[in-house]
Amino acid sequence: MKPATLLVVAVMTLAAASSATAGKVRTWTDASSKYTIDASLVAFNESDVVLERASDKQLGTVPIDKLSEQDKEYLKTKEAVDSAKELTDAMQRWKLSNGMEVVGRLVDFGRKEIVLRRSRGTMYVNDRAYQNLPPIYQKIIPLIVRHAGNKVDDADMLETWLSSRGGRPQTFTVDGVVLELENGDEYGIPFFLFSPQDLEVLQPGWETWLAAHEKQDYAARQHEALRLQTEAAEYQRQRDAQDRRRIAELQLGLTAVEAGVTSMWEVTLYPQPGNPGPPLWVTGFARNSRDASYQAMAKHPGYVVGPVRRISN
């Protein structure tokens, strides 16, 4: 195989992913036909392609104009389009910091102007009647208003607040991501509604995207949007895999309980001095209370064991 040095240099590492939902491994060649890399297609847009390198499962981007004509033609095929859609077009579930869950697909960063007003007894959001918004967005709008320092927690308080303004519209600038819902509508979801863990995945490209947005650099914006789509989709895929593993472990543990091999225990943990965390109630499978306590403490350092009780027969 020809050396992959220059083509790898063109790859910008996005994440140390365990294994993306990528297509089959194929050899990609640069425009000079001198350098190659074995990788699977993950996603692409008008300017960039995201590949998963076969050797180490790293994700990276390559400008399409740096690829060979054969690779460019491949990206036009149904196989390539279907392979890319498998990961980035899947609906995702995002649990917001206030406990709400939204279902959609992250497609871009966004800075949105949201204009709220009340006219003739009806609330409007960007000239669309509030009651006609998707239910999840009806819940998000009051949170945006509250985040700006207003005492608004729900739709009733929002209407009272708008009424007090005497019909004057109020504009809010919202920085966040654009979520495409299952019906095809797109809405901006503010960064402040995501958990700190989710923001570690979603925010890194924001400043670059915003700078490109202000300079009207379309190519740079598309580059960051593709990075966001790919990393968000891979993050969700890995989280779903973890959930499946936890369910499998739970099922295995319950089978062991039924067979009399082990028991299910609830361990109360109290924070040690200097630990600001709350008390915890941890459940797990173990042969006895001592093993259950050790397992709980290993998962939650900085705590001491309180009462322990068996919760299976």
TrEMBL record:
Keywords: Signal. Residues 19-78 form the SLA1 homology domain. Coiled coil: none annotated. One of its GO terms (molecular function) is ubiquitin binding. Residues 1-22 form the signal peptide. InterPro entries: SHD1. This is SHD1 domain-containing protein. It comes from Aeoliella straminimaris.
